Amino acid sequence: MPAASVKSRVLSGLKWNAISTIAIRGTDFGVKLILARILLPEAYGIVGMAMIIISFLEVVSDMGLFNALVQKKEDEFSELRYSSAFWFLLVLASIFALCFYGFISQLGASFYNEPLLVPVLNALSFYLFFNILSIVPRVLLTRQLNFKSLVQITFIGTALSSVVAIALAIAGYGVWSIVVKYLVSSSTIFLSYWIKVNWRPQFKFNWQTLRQLAGYSTYTQINNILFFVRNNIDYLVIGKLVGAHVLGVYTLAFTLSEVLRTQLYSILNKVLFPVYSKIQDDTEQIKKYYLKIMRFTAMLTFPVSIIFIGLSENIILAFFGAKWLEAADPLRILAVASMIFAISGTPAEVLKGIGKPSVSFYLNMINTFVIALPLIYLGQKYFGLNGVAYAVCIHYTTSRLAFHYYMKKYIHITDEEVFLALRKPVMAAITMLLVIEAGKLTSMENNLVLIVAGSLGSLVYILFFKDDIKYGIKLLSKKQN
């Protein structure tokens, strides 16, 4: 694909997915704030326990097919490949749904010693069902780089489910308001995908076409499982060892600290994986995008993290009340972890795009079982939630360093290039934190400190990037396909 065409598609994808972050994720985050204000930590903890199980099975059920189908070049077998994948996923989704009612829900409730998980998991099995059946139409829209439709569909599901969830929470339905939010969102997105996509499966199935994807999909699937375990092992350990209340507190801290970074990476991964796949033989072009994205992720993630580092107690008290104050210290530490993760760009997507998912697999396996799991367990056992948060910082650091080594190997990134890409974001973040700390020395009451110190710190940070902001607005204002 010509460089100009790739640039146009990347800008279009970033434009529509930026809209997604502001409109969709902003709405979703706002709803979580409202629900947290209404509900107790236990409600968040119970749903958090359930979603660990559901999300794990969602990763397993993908079978690596989404990434493999996106990465596979179009040929005369593409239509047969898509149809075969759909029928396979339909059978798989049906089996999973039945297994929940048969034994999965009971096993989950027994593991956490939380009886309420049985009906919650049974209900959320339909969330898993709809998500599995959305894989193929999502592949088709992603291959077309039709990010506009992907964003619009997700927004419809988010908006509708948010209204329903808030209404149920106000009416006193507690944990079920969160459960119904997941169900309404997934079912709405599922229906919207199939309405939008101009494709229907043929009544054909060929096992060989799926087996041809196995070499790529096996590594990506196992890597996705390891990535999931690494990112959720803290929830698993906390839920198992100390119960729903503490897990709810940690969930809030993690959600706040990671809200921008995780959604930003979701945007970039959706855009860059298919792009890296199309330009997989052009190392210089991949390197150029990688360095720009590294600077971009740091520039956007750092100010939010600095706000949480400097004003965690103020934020908790202002938005959630004293019942959530236990989340303040873990929030501050996890905000540092978010900054550590953000400074490495999107190395896993590069490795997938150039056809080397096995590298991510081995890195994630070592980091998950040798570093993350023992550190999080020991952190929780001896230092509580703060210990878990520090463990997350350490295993994020080791992971990013390992990925950087392979970026140097495969796309020839240098340490000097990384330093130049991150120099301004780091300087801006340090200055912003100093301004916030100075604002906290005043005798203003909590909400006023939050507003004044947060606003001044943010303004100082923005001034570092005024030229970048002008350039970004100019690019995104151009008409993109």
Automatic annotation (TrEMBL):
<keyword id="KW-1003">Cell membrane</keyword>
<dbReference type="InterPro" id="IPR050833">
    <property type="entry name" value="Poly_Biosynth_Transport"/>
</dbReference>
<feature type="transmembrane region" description="Helical">
    <location>
        <begin position="116"/>
        <end position="141"/>
    </location>
</feature>
<feature type="transmembrane region" description="Helical">
    <location>
        <begin position="333"/>
        <end position="354"/>
    </location>
</feature>
<feature type="transmembrane region" description="Helical">
    <location>
        <begin position="82"/>
        <end position="104"/>
    </location>
</feature>
<feature type="transmembrane region" description="Helical">
    <location>
        <begin position="296"/>
        <end position="321"/>
    </location>
</feature>
<feature type="transmembrane region" description="Helical">
    <location>
        <begin position="43"/>
        <end position="70"/>
    </location>
</feature>
<feature type="transmembrane region" description="Helical">
    <location>
        <begin position="153"/>
        <end position="173"/>
    </location>
</feature>
<feature type="transmembrane region" description="Helical">
    <location>
        <begin position="179"/>
        <end position="195"/>
    </location>
</feature>
<keyword id="KW-0472">Membrane</keyword>
<feature type="transmembrane region" description="Helical">
    <location>
        <begin position="418"/>
        <end position="436"/>
    </location>
</feature>
<comment type="similarity">
    <text>Belongs to the polysaccharide synthase family.</text>
</comment>
<dbReference type="Pfam" id="PF13440">
    <property type="entry name" value="Polysacc_synt_3"/>
</dbReference>
<keyword id="KW-1133">Transmembrane helix</keyword>
<keyword id="KW-0812">Transmembrane</keyword>
<feature type="transmembrane region" description="Helical">
    <location>
        <begin position="361"/>
        <end position="379"/>
    </location>
</feature>
<feature type="transmembrane region" description="Helical">
    <location>
        <begin position="385"/>
        <end position="406"/>
    </location>
</feature>
<protein>
    <submittedName>
        <fullName>Lipopolysaccharide biosynthesis protein</fullName>
    </submittedName>
</protein>
<feature type="transmembrane region" description="Helical">
    <location>
        <begin position="448"/>
        <end position="465"/>
    </location>
</feature>
